[in-house]
Fold these 2 entries.
Entry 1:
Amino acid sequence: MRTKILLLAILLFPLLYISFCNQKKTPKNNSSAFPLSLKDYGLFDGPIKRLQPSRNVFSYQLSSALFTDYTEKQRLIRLPRGKMIQVDKSSALSFPEGTIIAKTFYYPKSGKEGRIMETRILERINGSWAAATYKWNESQDDARLVTKGENVPVTFKDTKDREWKTAYRIPSTKDCGTCHQKSGTMVTIGPELANLNRMVAGKDGKPVNQLQIMQALGFLKLGKGSKIAEGLPAYFDNKNSLEKRARAYLKINCAHCHNPGGFASAQTISLDYSTTLSASGLLLHRKPIPERMKIMGQYHMPKLGTTLPDVEGIDLIEEYLKSLP
């Protein structure tokens, strides 16, 4: 009898162990699992609310960034030990297996204590990207995995001292797939070579090209015959022309859906920065584009990711569209 009980226990143990693990994890790409806590990634040193990147994590900046309800963003990349991001002849980035890209959304202090809202994760698994979102708690000492999305009430002041009140939207896993898909494949949006090709402050405070820093630190490798793509203009920098600023804004805020392989590929509009004006569809849609940017709800553009209108972005696009022949 004892032998039968022991044999049964041995047979059941693997099943019980698998069941326990599945309760602790949420599937990603049906083959692996995301941790429940953001801490488990080891992206930060010290108290997590300080957002101090670990030594093996690179903090990067973009020339033109996605608008998300006036939040500030910290962007991080962690690569597997001994691996680098490769650049091919077309200036496309190839991320190694196991790469983690993290973007944390927060409101800085403005009279009151600042607040970290969420951290979004892209992880390179089995040759494709898997997405996860982590909601920060009230005490700001941890962020927990959410899959169905949540609305978080928040009141804040932007950089122009305007006060806003909204139900900040943390996206669901499905939402992530809507924006980050191209021809049915998950892709990155912000970290492209042209958008990383910008000047940043070096250790001595002097400006230095960010791509040079990434190469020096062993994060980036230019392949044979590869070339550095021209930097994407910063749409908030008035030193750039109106056309460049507006097209850069449309590229980073709209082109991930409005491209031949994107979610809105059926529309007669393509907003990649390299698309010519005549092929972009902007001349046909100069009136509805700013109107869709102003109204909130089902017909708002961008469709996901914002609950508030981007006042400065709307002004920029209206001015540009009025200037077109």
Note: The chain has two domains: 24-232, 233-325.
Entry 2:
Amino acid sequence: MDIYIDRLNEQDAKELFAFECKNRRFFEQTVQSRGDDYYSFGSFEIRHRELLKEQDDAMSSFYLIKEDSGTIVGRINLVDIDRIKGTAQVGYRIGEAFTKKGVANKALQLLVKLAPDMNVTQIHAKTTTVNIGSQKVLVKNGFERISVREDTSEKLPLYHYRKNL
């Protein structure tokens, strides 16, 4: 499947909301729920504007993963960008109908290529210990597992990864 990543913008709210709602149960199998409020369009719009502000302030960079037709198949983000240290945290989620097709792998490759333009030289990632697919994507893209930690906000321990660019 051919995909590209497209920087999040104001016009994406409705389509992104539909994507999140459609995949809610699937996502919540491996990550903590974002809560019922997130799935109310009014609350979602507020959060969407907050993300755009964070992006404008260069604290994060949010992307939609799209297939050639322009359909959203996932999301990938660099957050907590520290331009002095050159670090950021990556996160991604792929819609259920698009898993096991190389989408996360390709999207991560594309994002890693963009990271130096944001003065990022080291990317961190974390995943639950049960999210085998995400672990494989990180390792395939040259991330090294550096620790296992309990996280009070997650139900499961987390694997922490790092990649130096």
Note: The CA atoms of residues 21 and 91 lie 18 Å apart.
